[in-house]
């Protein structure tokens, strides 16, 4: 799924810790949980759809409504949700064929789990999810993973056997982690137009009461929710949640200060200190699995097809200045694989800030300074549009630093920022010259969705057979040693070719009322709302 904007990796190192797994996913429980109350959340983007398989944004609201078979916890370890355990080779949940070319994954579903209309969850729903998402008529944000499955067997109502045509170590980063679709409600329906997209039916702690586009989503307690706390009290504790859509970060911060909003993430770094002093509010730093990047459109901009031009851009960008402009919170990086992962490659080619080197590369490529200082080649000025998400002040601030840095090298950039669906479409379709933004991944990223020739998030049109080969190798083995070797080689090849410049890894700053108990941030693209059943207001 895009957002790997949803991704993962080696199943073997995500071994299940059965004891306390549900407790961990809930973020732990304080001794004095209170039942009732409504939490108001501020979202910094306009929701396109509430269908988790169609949205081009992080599924914050969706994570509180629909559930998958497993999910990453606060430490990015997979724990069971609708499945009773995480499948592994050790526990027999994963079986690799004798020829090493295919595998089966078996899930045991949680007895007694129900949809929010009271109907039972069964293995037929899991099989239907695969069939519905892979359907060519369904316009999904990503069908990642569907093509790897040859068939699904459902020997009984609580057993699902998924047959893969390849060894797929990334299986938990796709379909069944992000949500199961209700067969009894959607069978025979057009998933592109069905009312499910505005009011999805789920097994999660909450259900959608009202969705007013561009304004808010109101959630109410799911009376059929299956989970109970350690004392036998049915969850969730909260009566409901209100998600207010507030794309402008300044407005969002104002409403946090006044108490109109009680929780929001992605707080602009420039305003963290102001909120930190607001009575009754605390700031939480969430080191998310993300990286900020500058992508070149390789489909329509001829200048960017020259790797030396791309490298000149990299040398001209002062990453430390970007971090400083954002309060010092971001960490400059040299690879698209963030340092938290064991397979990050510290030996990749690096492009430390070097304005002289940037100018030398541009001179050699035939781009000479014009009368106004902007470089020219064959009568064409080195002037491009750079897109970021409108209203996201942190990205817009970084964008200004990048514009200033590149101007010193004789490159003119003009902001062309978009919001909502326009931003999403431009990002995926490559309707930009340059794109500055960030990706947040799963606990186990699948990098082919970004850099594979057919990657769903590869809007820039990058294609490199060697990269494809290395990513196929990394994404076709359960052996962590082989996988690490392929991914490190991939990073070297990518940073040599440089279709995208990794800039920084940015923590997400969360403002949350001190009255909210049970809240623990989640570092993955499953969002902070994957564990809402254990939240309570004091």
TrEMBL record:
<keyword id="KW-0813">Transport</keyword>
<dbReference type="InterPro" id="IPR030678">
    <property type="entry name" value="Peptide/Ni-bd"/>
</dbReference>
<dbReference type="Pfam" id="PF00496">
    <property type="entry name" value="SBP_bac_5"/>
</dbReference>
<comment type="similarity">
    <text>Belongs to the bacterial solute-binding protein 5 family.</text>
</comment>
<keyword id="KW-0732">Signal</keyword>
<dbReference type="InterPro" id="IPR000914">
    <property type="entry name" value="SBP_5_dom"/>
</dbReference>
<feature type="signal peptide">
    <location>
        <begin position="1"/>
        <end position="32"/>
    </location>
</feature>
<dbReference type="InterPro" id="IPR039424">
    <property type="entry name" value="SBP_5"/>
</dbReference>
<feature type="domain" description="Solute-binding protein family 5">
    <location>
        <begin position="78"/>
        <end position="451"/>
    </location>
</feature>
<protein>
    <submittedName>
        <fullName>ABC transporter substrate-binding protein</fullName>
    </submittedName>
</protein>
């Amino acid at each position: 799924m895009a957002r790997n904007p949803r991704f993962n990796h080696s199943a073997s190192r995500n071994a299940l810790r059965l004891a306390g797994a549900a407790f961990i996913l809930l973020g732990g429980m304080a001794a004095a949980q209170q039942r009732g109350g409504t939490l108001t959340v501020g979202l910094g983007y306009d929701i396109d759809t509430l269908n988790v398989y169609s949205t081009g944004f992080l599924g914050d609201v969706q994570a509180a409504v629909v559930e998958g078979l497993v999910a990453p916890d606060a430490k990015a370890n997979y724990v069971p949700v609708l499945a009773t355990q995480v499948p592994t080779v050790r526990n027999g949940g994963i079986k690799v064929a004798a020829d090493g070319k295919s595998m089966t994954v078996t899930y045991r579903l949680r007895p007694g789990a129900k949809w929010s209309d009271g109907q039972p969850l069964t293995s037929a729903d899991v099989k239907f999810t695969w069939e519905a998402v892979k359907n060519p008529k369904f316009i999904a944000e990503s069908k990642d993973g569907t093509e790897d499955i040859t068939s699904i067997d459902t020997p009984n109502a609580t057993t699902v056997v998924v047959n893969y045509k390849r060894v797929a170590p990334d299986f938990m980063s796709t379909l069944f982690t992000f949500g199961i679709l209700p067969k009894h409600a959607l069978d025979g329906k057009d998933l592109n137009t069905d009312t499910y997209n505005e009011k999805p039916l789920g097994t999660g702690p909450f259900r959608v009461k009202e969705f007013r586009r561009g304004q808010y989503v109101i959630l109410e307690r799911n009376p059929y929710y299956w989970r109970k706390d350690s004392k036998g009290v049915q969850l969730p504790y909260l009566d409901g949640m209100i998600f207010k859509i507030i794309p402008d970060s300044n407005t969002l911060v104002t409403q946090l200060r006044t108490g109109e909003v009680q929780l929001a993430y992605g707080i602009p770094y420039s305003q963290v200190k102001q909120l930190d002093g607001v009575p009754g509010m605390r700031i939480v730093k969430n080191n998310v699995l993300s990286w900020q990047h500058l992508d070149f459109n390789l489909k329509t901009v001829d200048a960017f097809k020259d790797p030396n031009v791309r490298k000149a851009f990299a040398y001209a960008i002062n990453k430390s200045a970007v971090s400083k402009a954002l309060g010092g919170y971001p960490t400059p990086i040299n690879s698209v694989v963030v340092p938290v992962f064991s397979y990050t490659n510290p030996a990749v080619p690096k492009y430390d800030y070097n304005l002289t080197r940037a100018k030398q590369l541009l001179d050699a490529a035939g781009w000479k300074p014009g009368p106004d200082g902007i470089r020219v080649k064959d009568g064409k000025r080195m002037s491009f549009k750079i897109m970021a998400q409108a209203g996201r002040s942190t990205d817009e601030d970084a964008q200004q630093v990048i514009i200033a840095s590149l101007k010193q090298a004789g490159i003119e950039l003009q902001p062309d920022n978009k919001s909502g669906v326009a931003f999403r479409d431009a990002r995926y379709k490559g309707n930009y010259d340059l794109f500055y933004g960030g990706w947040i991944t799963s606990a186990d990223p699948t990098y082919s969705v970004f850099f594979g020739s057919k990657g769903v998030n590869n809007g820039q049109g990058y294609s490199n057979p060697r990269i494809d080969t290395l990513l196929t190798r990394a994404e076709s083995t359960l052996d962590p040693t082989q996988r690490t070797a392929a991914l490190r080689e991939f990073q070297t090849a990518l940073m040599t070719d440089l279709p995208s410049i990794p800039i920084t890894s940015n923590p997400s700053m969360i403002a949350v009322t001190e009255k909210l108990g049970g809240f623990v941030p989640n570092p993955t693209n499953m969002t902070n709302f994957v564990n809402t059943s254990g939240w309570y207001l004091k």
